[in-house]
Amino acid sequence: MDHSKDGCDGSATHPTGYFSLLWNLFEGLVCNKNASASALEHAVKQLKERDMLKLDDYDKFLTYFVNRYLEKGKTNDRYKKLNLRNGDKPKLVESVLNGSETTPEKVLLAILIIVYRYRNNLFHGIKEITDLPNQIENFRHANDLLMMFMGKWKGE
Known about the structure:
Layout: H1 13-30, H2 37-49, H3 59-69, E1 70-71, E2 74-75, H4 77-80, H5 90-97, H6 104-123, H7 136-153
């Protein structure tokens, strides 16, 4: 069966499958098996308390998300498709993306919330299988961010 037209040919499923595994590890290790924006905020605070939070470490992720979700200083349709809920701190995420909030812990929290929305949108069926080829870079960046965060969490 030819799946090259429906996004199921494997090219998009590898980073997505890796994300599923990494998210599971991340949620168990960092969020006590119960991820939420407040659990992410608590984890970021713990990283800061351990003096393991450096904004430079997360610049490439912030740059990627700013380029993806802002156009001419305003959030775009892609941003709306994140489906941020009130509990996901949408005002914080937007203020980080537009540069009005620059504190390291707020920046890290905002980009983790974006990745959390990737998780929710993927696991709860909001992301269409046919759209996965357009999501490869999202999941590659999310995977790199989760790996970096878990490394710092474990003190590496």
